[in-house]
Write a structure and sequence with these properties.
The chain is mainly α and about 260 residues long. The chain is built from eight helices and two strands.
Length: about 260
């Protein structure tokens, strides 16, 4: 599989919270003024490995191995802006985020409203691949209220400078791939082995866990009264909490995770 870690992780930008949310005029007009952006350069904490490569592996059942291979095949797919399926998924994401609002093009200043770093979202998918777009789309379609709450920063006492929704989503995809050790032939962590039990029972387990993790990250963000410089610290806290919950003995399915209760449809 390709190395998505690069030279220390992806870049990150912060968006200034606007009290009236994402109210805008005509969709095809400039979105200037509705968001203020800071420069890039904060590394993605999820690219940092805590363990050596010399770790034990866990045996898999035939069903788990098959499910893992299918998920790894999804992870291997890079976003390609020339592929019609990828174009349609990107358009679908726009409509999930801003239903009824016209999108002027797959390259447009409008995308910055969702929290992409520039006018072409495809440049931000390099850290997570096509699966990171699929994750966002799954979130928007299956938990639209939580999706909109996070996109528009509706809940809690927000910081003046907030994390950008879409870029944070790509970071979460990449973090989960690392936590669950999904690029290994067999899982080398108990967390990874535990997740494969859920995956064998639910083909959409990775997408569901993504939604849970995104909401958990925002919950941690609010609890820590975080601002944009705290993003990596919040991601570390999110990782620790997620690992603790996944390893609880009474968790038979992802819906049993305590943090699942944070999601609303």
């Amino acid at each position: 599989m390709d190395d998505r870690g690069g030279g220390g992780g992806g870049s990150f930008v912060a968006v200034r919270r606007i009290s009236q949310g994402l109210d805008r005029g005509n969709a095809c007009h400039s979105t200037s003024g509705s968001a203020a952006w800071l420069g890039r350069g904060l590394s993605c904490v999820c690219a940092q490995r805590r363990d050596s490569d010399a770790r034990p592996s866990f045996d898999l059942t035939a069903s788990q191995e098959e499910c893992l291979h299918r998920l790894q095949s999804r992870i291997d797919v890079a976003y390609d802006s020339s592929v019609p399926e990828h174009q349609e998924a990107l358009r679908a994401l726009w409509h999930a985020a801003f239903p009824g609002e016209e999108l002027c093009g797959l390259i447009s200043e409008q995308w910055k409203e969702m929290g992409w770093q520039g006018k072409d979202p495809s440049t931000d998918f390099r850290g997570g691949g096509f699966i990171s777009l699929e994750n966002l789309l799954y979130f928007g379609r299956n938990f639209p209220k939580s999706f909109q709450d996070l996109l528009r920063k509706k809940e809690g006492d927000r910081a003046m400078w907030e994390y950008p929704f879409a870029v944070a989503g790509v970071n979460i995809t990449f973090m989960l791939i690392q936590i669950l050790d999904l690029e290994a032939v067999k899982p080398r962590t108990l967390v990874g082995a535990t997740f494969l039990k859920f995956l064998a029972e639910n083909e959409a387990a990775f997408d569901l866990l993504y939604c849970i993790t995104f909401k958990l990250m925002d919950h941690q963000w609010l609890a820590m009264h975080a601002s944009y410089m705290d993003f990596n610290t919040v991601m570390k806290a999110t990782r620790r909490q997620l690992e603790r919950e996944l390893l609880q003995e009474d968790i038979a399915r992802l819906e049993d995770l305590p943090c699942y209760s944070l999601l609303t449809r």
